[in-house]
Every structure is written in C-alpha cells, then in structure tokens.
Amino acid sequence: MWLYIIDPHPMKDDSFQIALLRLQSDLHTKLRDMHDVRKVLIYGLKMTAALLRADEAVAATLDTTDDSVKTLFSIPKHTGILDELLSQFLKDQRPETDYYTLLVPVRRKARSWVVLALRRGAEPFRREEYNALFSVAQIITDVIYRLDRERFIRVRRKIERRIANREDPKDLMYNILHGLHSLTQYDHSASLYITKANSDKLELVAERIAWTKAKSRHIGRRVRIDEDEELRLRRSGVSVYRKDGSVWYSLLEQTNTKAELPRLLANEFNTDKEMAEEVVMLCAPIQTPDGTLSILKISARRPNVLGAYEAELVDSFMPLVSLVVQFSGQIESLRAQVLKAERKHVLADMARATAHDVNHALGTILPRVQVLRGELQEGALDTSTLEEDLHDIEVSVQTCRRIFDGMLAIARETNRGLGHGNVIRAIEQSLSVLQDRLKRKQIEVAMDSPVELPTVRGRQGDITRLFLNLCGNAIDAMDGGGRLIISVETTESTLKVVLQDDGCGIPEAIMHKVMEPFFSNKENGSGLGLAICRSIIREVGGEMTIESTEGEGTQVLLTLPYLDEPILEIR
C-alpha cells in the first residue's frame, strides 16, 4: 500500500496530478486482486480521502427495506450530517451542494448504486479534486463490473457443468433459480412454469422463495393462457412489469396497456412473515424445438431491483434454461415410458402375489364339492354337515371375489387421468387384498391417522398400487410374524405417510439399489415393486425415502402433495 504524505498547504497542479496518477495506478494494482465489493469501496474511498485531505468521507446506499440511507463505510464514525444530501442524490434528485462537499455515484447494474461523499471544512474543493473523485469512482465502477461479470461466468459455467453431467432436471432448475438470485438479488421469488406433454396449461415445476428455504406450496399450480397472450409471448423477449396499485404495466415498453400475465403469475402470500407482495416482475418466455412454451418468472418486493440490466442478464441465460426444459421433457417422457412398461407387469405381479391365497381358497372349495357330489349320487348326503361345508365354500368364494374385485378396481382407476387420490381408501383397499397373507403370517396392522384427510395428487389406482407394493414388501419381510404400523399426518402442503415394519430389514450393501428396476433380493422377485413406487411418486411430485436396519426393520416415508390448486386462466 502506498503511503501518501500530503502537504497541509495547497498543492501545485503538477504535484496534485502526479499524486493522482500514483493513486490511480495503486488502485488498479490493488483492486485487481480484490474479490469483495465492500473492500473495493473502502479501499478506494480511504485513499481518495487521504489525497483530497477530506475531513469526512462516506460511502452510502439506500436501505433495501425502507429507502433510508445505509452507510457502508465512513471516516470518521458516521455522524448523519450528510444523510439528507445522500438520500436525495441516491434517488436521482441531484441536490444542490456547496463547494465544501463532493458527491459522485458508483454505478452497478446500469444504475446508481452507491454514492461517495467527501466533506472538507477548511477550504473549498477545486474542480480538479472533483474530477479526481469522479475518476476514482469510475475505477471502482469498472472493478465492480468486472467482479459481477466474473460472478456471472462462474454461475453459468457451474450450471453448464451440471447440465453436461446430466443431473436431475429438478435439481438443475433450482440451481438456475439460485444462480439467478446471486446475480440479480431478487427479494421475492423465482419460478419456472413448463408446458408438459399432452397439456395446454403451464405448470409450476420449480419455485424458490427468496427469504425461506422451505419448498414452495405452489408447486403443481397450473395456468392456462389464451391464444393471443401465447402469440405475444412467442414474439417477445424478456419483459419487465411494475405494479401500480392493483394493475401491472410494462416497464420497458412505452405503453400504458395493462398486462394480464403478471397478474396471473403473481403469488399471494398470507403469513405475517410473507406480507410484502410482488411489485416488479420479470417474465422470460422459453421456446423449445418441439414448439412448447414455458416461462421463467422472477419477482421482487422493491421497485428498483429488476430492470433492463436484469432483463439482459436473464436473456443470456435463456439457452441454458431451454436446454434444461428440453432435458426435463425428455426425462419425463422416458419416465412415462418406464411407468407404462411397469404398469403392464403390475397385474401379473399382483396375480403372482395373490395366487397362493386364491389357490388356497380353491383348494378348500374343490374337495368339499367333490365329497358333496359323491354323497348326493350315493344318496348318503349328510345334512348335518351340509351347512358347515356350504359355509366354508361361501367363505372361500368371498375371499376370491374380494381379491379379484380389488385387483379390478385398481386396474380401472389406473386408466383414469391424473386426478385425486384418497390415501385412506388406498390403504384400506390394499390391506383388503392382502388380508389373507396378513392372517397367515400373523402380522398385526396398526393405523394412526386423522379422521379427515385432504385428497392428494395422482390416480386413485396408482395410489392404491403404491401402498399395495409397500405393504406387500413389509409382509414379505416379516416371515415369522410382526407388526406393521402405518401413520398419516398433514402439513401445510403435503400428506406424510410412514410405514414401519419390524421385519428382516435391508442389508446396507444393497440399500442404494433397492429402487432400481429389476433389482430384487427375493428368490422369485421381479424387481419392479419399489421401481413402480418411485415412478408413481415422481409422477405426482412427491418424495419417498427408505431407512432400514438389517435384523430390525424398515421405515418408508412418503410425502404426497395435495391436489392442485384450481386452474387459472387469462381471458
């Protein structure tokens, strides 16, 4: 660091210019290795205050919450004397100042960001001293631009690497939303709406709330836009809208036309912590080669957070977002094909699982019918045992009927479109089909659930098959008897179901493989049970985790999202 010893008497012009050149050279050298914006500001202001013999130096910006002056650094300790001037300057009001005060802006993201202020009481500042402060502010501006550009390149390269590694599309989406937050500093939310196959509606598939790490409760929300709005989106680029009262207007276009899209996409938050609403919104249409339309939305609670700079930045991200959307569509298509293939095997798999029970029931019926026929032909029918035999035959027939009715109900409900599922009905139906296996193995079932539960996303048949597979696995794990505990609880946006058995457990060495298709540690297993469960869970937007200890038992935790919100539509 250079040490400047300033003569207390006024400098000659050539001495001042030499000192200024030394300062500028020092700034270029020192700031080149700095990566912290605050340190860049402090260093530049300190050196300039020393050169200009200022009594007071301040670097200030506007507070993000109430537009008050926020001091980033001051020499000496902040007194607040300059606050009114700083506030007016930061709000582009260009206040009048005396010759003892210098104010210059440091620009960031194409707008004034910080003001540097110097004050001297002994003598007025000269023109060349103002120019000196202005040149330092320009150097700081250039350095901050470089730092922001380097951050942009790091974020982009990180996402490109993740795309190249074919990471899960959902993770990629949230990486993009998180990366955009580090670049734009949006303080409300960022969302991605995708048009899925065979649908004319945009569905919210990812959303990041700026002030919380919790999963958004709006996932699955669907929006339908009319043909005129869709055509306008396809022809336009990134748009920025600002809210005036209850009406949205375009910020970048010179028009007073009301905008319907931001009104439709705006989220309403109701808790005390989430009182602030969106006042500015950036919408970027995403078009993929197959012609589908998706939308990236970023919104802020303060009007000056998003503008032309952020629109240009987001526009440069659109090719990456488009790739992720295409990748997501491909993965969804592959998963749908896998699920379709798995569904073709499910009834056969269920038939194999219940064949023993059906054969057992038929094995009870056939000998009794043969005995009754023989006694009837010989005229030796014993009426005293007839009622008992008929009762046993009726019980066995009812068992077969119950098993096949349950299988047919599941098959019928599986063919319906993605609708709503009743978890309690699904569990009861599954346990009904598995009733004889539970009795034969002496397995007790304990159920803990609220009386009323909200419906969840998904076909009723799929939800039933989900529990049929999981309960079947639990039964297979408890050959010597045991206890199956099923507990259900509600949260704000999901239904949580835990299935706990005290069976043989899963060896730790194969835990990472248990949900892979065609992997099974059962002697005659197909390896499709948990793979089907995983596909169903993914299709409805839920989560499934498995924890197991060999010799002690297994716990499966299901998180099932509630039924979608009503579809909103622009008209």
What does this structure look like?
The chain is α+β, with helices and mostly antiparallel strands and 571 residues long. The chain folds into three domains: 13-151, 2-Layer Sandwich (Beta-Lactamase); 168-333, Beta-Lactamase (2-Layer Sandwich); 419-571, 2-Layer Sandwich (Heat Shock Protein 90). 45% of the residues lie in helices and 21% in strands. The chain has 13 helices and 19 strands. It has helices at residues 13-31, 37-51, 83-90, 127-164, 169-184, 227-235, 261-265, 308-378, 383-414, 423-433, 435-440, 460-476, 529-540, and strands spanning 56-62, 69-75, 101-108, 111-119, 189-195, 202-209, 222-224, 239-244, 247-250, 280-287, 293-300, 420-421, 443-448, 456-457, 482-490, 494-501, 543-549, 553-561, 568-569. The strands form four sheets. Strands 9-8-10-11-5-6-7-19 form an eight-stranded mixed sheet. It has a five-stranded mixed sheet with strand order 13-15-16-18-17. It has a four-stranded antiparallel sheet with strand order 2-1-4-3.
Shape: elongated
> Helix content range of the residues, please?
40-55%
Total domains, how many?
3
End-to-end Cα distance, whole Å, is 65 Å
Content-based structural category: alpha+beta
Q: Which superfamily, in CATH terms, is the homologous superfamily of the largest domain?
A: GAF domain
Report the CATH topology name of the largest domain: Beta-Lactamase
Give the strand tally.
19
Biggest β-sheet strands, sense, barrel: 8 strands, mixed
Strand order of the largest sheet: 9-8-10-11-5-6-7-19
Uncertain runs are 1-11, 270-274, 413-417, 565-571
Number of helices: 13
CATH architecture of the largest domain: 2-Layer Sandwich
% residues in beta strands: 15-25%
Calculate Rg over CA atoms: 35 Å
Oligomer: single chain
Mean pLDDT: 79
CATH class of the largest domain: Alpha Beta
